[in-house]
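ERR on first pass: missing label on line 2. Operator R.T. fixed the label and resubmitted. Corrected input:
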Amino acid sequence: AQSVTQLGSHVSVSEGALVLLRCNYSSSVPPYLFWYVQYPNQGLQLLLKYTTGATLVKGINGFEAEFKKSETSFHLTKPSAHMSDAAEYFCAVETQGAQKLVFGQGTRLTINP
Amino acid sequence: ETGVTQSPTHLIKTRGQQVTLRCSSQSGHNTVSWYQQALGQGPQFIFQYYREEENGRGNFPPRFSGLQFPNYSSELNVNALELDDSALYLCASSSGLAGVTETQYFGPGTRLLVL
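pass 2 clean. output:
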């Protein structure tokens, strides 16, 4: 069965600092990986996804993630945090044909002025 | 192009009652998936509908049921509500079956409170 572990339920960084949100997955077959963001009282918005090909994926709002098969990781980064990045971030995995996303528990990102 | 919409936005019910939540998929999308997001948790897959047929189900009891209509909108029905059913219910639509490039687009959700 697939699973996703997000290390750190709460991450706090200063405005302008590097953002690093960690995600590890388990999957018996090559997975498809996603990062979604959820702002308060809203649904989920896709930040980026990895399916095949280049392992460094660029998304919206300056975020990027790198698929590392050997480490079973898909960490999300952003070089310089902005106050508007404060939100809940979810990593998700999907196996082709499984027809469903399996989400991690989420990481709440707080930006300090 | 309109996105995924859900109604109602909020709902309060009591234990034992039944509830129906509605979802309109994004234009051009024929697949709808439903997720339950309990407070402080990640979303959990309930089931998916593709062209009016159930196409995959998560670990939820039969009192969670659904429908998809010819216009690809969908309903989630929950019977005999329990306190633990209190959650944000998210609908996501995609074109074709969820797969390699079929990104799921989420609606804003319906927040259900069971008292």
